[in-house]
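Subject: Lipoprotein-releasing system ATP-binding protein structure
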Amino acid sequence: MNDTVLRLERITKIYNKGLRNEIRVLREVDLSVGEGEVVALVAPSGAGKSTLLHIAGLLDTPDDGRVVIGGEEMSGENDRKRTAVRRDSVGFVYQFHHLLPEFTALENVVLPQLANGAGSREAEARAMTLLDSVGIADRARHRPAALSGGEQQRVAFCRAMANKPRLLLADEPTGNLDPETSDRVFAALMALVRETGLSAVIATHNHELASRMDRQVQLDQGQLRAL
Ligand SMILES: Nc1ncnc2c1ncn2[C@@H]1O[C@H](COP(=O)(O)OP(=O)(O)OP(=O)(O)O)[C@@H](O)[C@H]1O
C-alpha cells in the first residue's frame, strides 16, 4: 500500500529560461506528504510558494523533476490525464475565495460535484453537510456578496472538499482576513481536514498558524528545508 499522497522529487522551475531575467524559482525541491499529514509551507513573498503549489496540483509543469500523486507519476502524462487526476484528487483554496458571484454558497459547493458526475440530490446533501461542518449552513442560500470574508472563505474550503480530494493545497487561505477571523476560519479548516483525514499543504506567512500543523517547511532561495 502506498501511503504517500504527494511526492515531489527534485523539482526545478525556471522562469524566463535563457533570458537575461531568468529566475530559478525552485531548485531540486523534494517534498513528501503522507496520508492525513498537514504540512505548513512558510516562505516570504515572492519565494515561489504559488509556483510550488501549482506544480503540486498539476496546474503548472516543472522544468525538471517528478510529481507523483497517489503513487501515480504525473510528469509524463498528457493534459487530459492531468486534468482528470486534478479534478478527482486535488482541492484548491486560494487567498481570495474565487467563488462564482451569481450562485449561492450552496450552489458553489454543488456545481463541482455535478461537473464530476454526481446527482443533484446527492451533491446538495454533501454540500449542506460540508457547510454545516464549518458552521455556515444557515448561509447556504446567500450569494457570496452577502457573506462576510470569513464566511466566503469557509465556502471556498467546502468547494475544495466537494469532490472528496485526497490532497488539499491552500495558498494563504486566511491571508486576506483580519487576525481574529483568520484564527477562527483556520480552526474550521483544520477541523474539516482532520475529520476527513485529508493530506494538505497549506502556505502561510503566519508562524503561529504554521505551528498548528504537523510539520513546517520553509522555501528559501529556491530550496525547501524543515523548520
Ligand atoms: N509566469 C511567470 N513568469 C515569470 N516570472 C514569474 C512567473 N510567475 C512567477 N514568477 C516569479 O517567480 C517568483 C515566485 O513567484 P510565486 O508567485 O511563486 O511567489 P509566491 O511565494 O507565491 O509569492 P506571494 O506570496 O507574493 O504570492 C517571483 O519572483 C515571481 O515574480
